[in-house]
UniProtKB/TrEMBL annotation, chains A, B:
Organism: Sphingobium limneticum
Broad class of enzyme this protein falls into: oxidoreductase
Cofactor: Zn(2+)
Single GO term (MF): zinc ion binding
Binding positions (substrate): S237, Q259, H262, H328, D361, E415, H420
Catalytic residues identified in the record: E327, H328
Protein name in the entry: Histidinol dehydrogenase
Task performed by this protein: Catalyzes the sequential NAD-dependent oxidations of L-histidinol to L-histidinaldehyde and then to L-histidine.
Domain of life: Bacteria
The keyword Metal-binding appears for this protein: yes
Cofactor binding, note field: Binds 1 zinc ion per subunit.
């Protein structure tokens, strides 16, 4: 049974706070194991990678091959249906177009003191992409990670993915072919992240590592933050749907279940101002769950983490929605714009009744790698900026240093840094 | 003695690689201590903060006071010279103007498929600023951290700073007053970072934590990455100066020493195409060091980490410079623009002979919180973007979902996610 709340409940405030504060992420303490793996790969390089792959993925890289060959990725793309190929290509084209608008502008100008000031953006040289094996190996995620790097202008993209027993998801390979990935290593886990960060004889080091993974992969990225750049820590997926009684309960139920079916830790929350609609959605969810091939996961997630919250009106709902800072937020009402104006914290917002979140997962264009677990309070979806960095620059004339140099000398002296002061003062003579 | 290299040395390649790979950061393993502190503060709140402060900073917060009062910050500003106050105000005004140009643009538009797509930026609600005690307590750093947050529109800024034996740097308080900081807590170390991230009865939690600190502070931020946003891991400071023989060796020496005097782990490297100039700079450094009140630190840093590299020409130098990905890069030549065009990796670049790095530390405008230890390969200086986040949004019409919905259904089915497919397919009927 999902949580059923009403803002008229006597204990609503505390029940809602408990919902906001609930941590759905398992506290697996893998940090020591990961530290050991990183150290072993840093010291042992490819030999350590081969050892771990034999142990965890049960194949010998020197037999099965270290890299996926171009022939394999081409064959994977040739092997899928025209419908799927067209869908992947439409997705890739639309994601590319959306992300091209994220490319930052350089700046350069001279101010009234005669100081030239600016900023110049460059792509990182190399990006590493982690692609999980098993349930979470999604071709759509591959596109969402690679395309921003390509649009940024990253010259080298190295993908790593575990191939348990040597097997690999052909749809992921097809997506890799469409995305133009030419370097794919059959390694996974913390050891693959270590190889990307430190480099081995075979795998050259990269500058940024993105992509989802299990607790070991996430912890490896966290420990290597600073050695390389990483994307935000990813947690369980979530959706908040704000819907009035004029929606079709079946549509709303499907939207909620599209998160629930991801993982038992996923969370789906409905806010509505219509108690009868709330009941209708709850009934529709119960009808739909048994029809899903993902019913076991959806059932577990909905019962453990689902919630239906009846509000007096949406003005009451929106501050609550903002506290949840959801990864995905649907505003299925007549005037979504007025509600959206009240949203400060959300990963991505889906406006109106005809905008199910799942279009954003695949083909709309914005990135589906979004902040989870209330992290939309401080972080953004993956973007071109994650694969670029900014160099500021300045240039002074004798007049300009005459104008602003004395203040620098005064501050340097006050901070007890005489060489700082001297480097400016010598030029003021 | 600093390292003396020439690109004509037989072993130059390996000697330079060793220089690039040298890690100047101490491998202090404080992670277990920090984990324990975070846990204690999370569980014990203010009582734990008071305990750690008594133990590490030797004062009783319940006697000395938890917060710096507005009267104290006002008195600090009143107590400094007019010259210093003017310098701080000039710095604050110029930093504000530069950072205002970093404010990102929202986007919103309808594409050819009829899909409305956009992105909207918001500031985080609250930012925490760590200000170290002791040697590294710089009023300039306070301005560089606070002003981007203010420009971003952050409503609440909470500063924490250790006050060993209850004492606090009045210049830092004066800068806090100029920057308009109204919330200053007398706590430091990992315990202060934990309080900002988790919140206590007294200190409300924040969304982003920035500011320099010792190994404990840095490790606390790393462990809390994901609970809050943090700035890049900071390491020892460094400068690379590219200078021809037409420079005044005294100026160049002062520029090199302006990094060396920061910390024994700082690094200063000169590239020049003129061996006689190299010798003259080396001699000038030796003359200047004894004149500095920071001579012990400058001596230690220059001897351990300084380097003078003689190149045949600057085309040979620039790829080497790029490998170093320096925090600060001075191009002290007649035509700095042509060299700058070859730079891909640097925190901030100082163009021409009249642009000493120290003006950038104080009054030029760009941020002086910059990527260190080769991290300019993948990260940028602190900016307004570190205190903001982007919410993507989309809206479909019936026509638009008809155009792109079927591809989403195909991909969802291929990924084995039937509720995803249903949420779109129901709307296509």
């Amino acid at each position: 049974m999902p949580l059923n709340l009403s803002t008229t409940d006597a204990d609503f405030a505390s029940a809602f706070t408990a919902l906001v504060d609930a941590r759905r992420e398992a506290d697996e303490d893998v940090s020591r194991d990961v530290t050991a793996i990183l150290k072993a790969v840093r010291a042992g390089g490819d030999a350590a990678l081969a050892d771990y792959t034999q142990r965890f993925d049960r194949h010998d890289l020197n037999v099965s091959g270290w890299a996926v060959t171009p022939a394999e990725t081409r064959a994977a793309l040739d092997g899928i249906s025209t419908e799927l190929r067209d869908a992947l290509e439409l997705a890739a084209a639309r994601i590319t177009t959306y992300h091209e608008k994220q490319k930052p502008q350089d700046s350069d100008g001279v101010d009234s003191a005669g100081v030239r000031l600016g900023a110049r953006w460059n792509a990182v040289d190399a990006a590493g992409l982690y692609v999980p094996g098993g349930r979470a190996a999604y071709p759509s995620s591959l596109l969402m990670n690679v395309i921003p790097a390509k649009v940024a202008g990253v010259q080298r993209i190295a993908m790593v993915t575990p191939t348990p027993n040597g097997e690999i998801n052909p749809l992921v390979l097809a997506a890799a072919q469409i995305a133009g990935i030419e370097e794919i290593w059959r390694v996974g886990g913390a050891q693959a992240v270590a190889a990307l960060a430190y480099g081995t004889d075979r795998i050259k080091p990269v500058d940024v590592i993105t992509g989802p993974g299990n607790a070991w992969v996430a912890e490896a990225k966290r420990q290597l933050y600073g050695v390389v750049g990483i994307d935000m820590v990813a947690g369980p997926s979530e959706i908040v749907v704000v819907a009035d009684g004029k929606n079709d309960p079946e549509w709303t139920a499907a939207d909620l279940l599209s998160q629930s079916e991801h993982d038992p830790t996923s969370q789906s929350i409905l806010f509505t101002d219509d108690a009868a609609f709330a009941d209708a959605v709850a009934a529709a969810v119960e009808r739909q769950i048994p029809t899903l091939s993902t019913s076991a996961v959806a059932r577990a997630s909905w019962d453990a983490n689902g919630a239906i919250i009846v509000v007096r009106d949406f003005d009451e709902a929106m501050p609550l929605v903002d506290r949840l800072a959801a990864e995905h937020l649907e505003l299925a009402v007549d005037d979504p714009e007025s509600l959206f104006a009240q949203v400060r914290h959300a990963g991505s917002v889906f406006l109106g009744r005809m905008t199910p979140e799942a279009v954003g997962d695949y083909v709309a264009g914005p990135n589906h790698v979004l902040p989870t677990g209330r992290r939309a309070r401080f972080s953004s979806g993956l973007s071109v900026l994650d694969f670029m960095k900014r160099t500021s620059f300045l240039s002074l004339t004798p007049v300009a240093i005459g104008a602003i140099g004395p203040a620098a000398v005064a501050l340097a002296q006050a901070e007890g840094l005489p060489a700082h002061a001297a480097s400016v003062a010598l030029r003021l003579k």
